Amino acid sequence: EAEVAQSPRYKITEKSQAVAFWCDPISGHATLYWYRQILGQGPELLVQFQDESVVDDSQLPKDRFSAERLKGVDSTLKIQPAELGDSAMYLCASSLGTSGSTDTQYFGPGTRLTVL
Amino acid sequence: AQSVAQPEDQVNVAEGNPLTVKCTYSVSGNPYLFWYVQYPNRGLQFLLKYITGDNLVKGSYGFEAEFNKSQTSFHLKKPSALVSDSALYFCAKDNQGGKLIFGQGTELSVKP
Questions:
Q1: CA nearest to A50, candidates A100, A111, A108
Q2: CB contact, 8 Å: A7 with chain B?
Q3: I need a surface site. Which of B25, B41, B53, B96 has the fewest CB within 10 A?
Q4: What share of chain A is helix, strand, coil (3-state, %, to 5)?
Q5: Which among B52, B3, B51 has a CA at the least distance from the CA of B27?
């Protein structure tokens, strides 16, 4: 069964350092999402891609966060510099259809970030 | 603003008993509703969704959910709970264009 891949699974960094997370969606999925899940809360959308284009990044803290999906397949989420409040689980999800569809989103295992 | 509420932080049931995890949502147009389950340090696994049609939706692992438009609810149910069902459950609503709005989550604990 196809799955969303993410790496690394765990990342510990010191504040002010740069970190990067990678996601490989299910093959053929046009839409890719990055969510942030703070402990004890539900995930919140950071950015949504349709192929290589950003559809929604309204909740992405653009002063320190950036995301790209250059070839419309895998994606990288970067934080620079990391702050203590960035400690969270970062989840990647993908769905088959175009933005605006009601296709199911399938999630990867996540990257647990700890900022010291 | 769109919202999803899960009024119970934790639900405790005995193995073999029926379980219900509650979810209510804010009204706007036709709601598209989802249930996901999360095991410790893992991503979310899709259980089921309601788009349109029959109000009773059947999903994975014996779970089902009942859509109730008048009560704006989408409660998750299972006739007979297993210890392995113990996990964190999230209800979500498709806001628009695929953006999911999640509830706070409900911790389900099933005791033998």
A1: A100
A2: no
A3: B53
A4: 5, 45, 50
A5: B3
Chain A interface includes B52 (CB < 8 A)? no
CA distance B112 to chain A (A): 25
pLDDT digits (tens, 9 = 90+) for A60-69: 999 999 999 9
Q: Any residues with CB less than 8 A from the CB of A17 and at least 6 apart, and which?
A: A80, A81, A82
Extract the tokens encoding A14: 């010191």
pLDDT of residue B59: 95
B61 torsion bin: left (phi>0), alpha (psi -120 to 50), beta (else): left
- pLDDT at A12 exceeding the cut of 80: yes
User: What digits encode the pLDDT tens for the residues B39-63?
Assistant: 987 889 999 999 888 899 999 999 9
> Shortest Cα distance from B7 to chain A (angstroms)?
13
Residue A14 and residue A116 in contact, taking contact as beta carbons nearer than 8 Å: yes
Residue A9 Ramachandran class (φ > 0 left, ψ -120 to 50 alpha, else beta): alpha
Q: Which stretches in chain B have pLDDT values below 70?
A: 96
Q: Which of residues 21-80 of A touch B (CB under 8 A)?
A: 31, 33, 40-45, 48, 55-56
CB atoms within 10 A of CB A16: 10
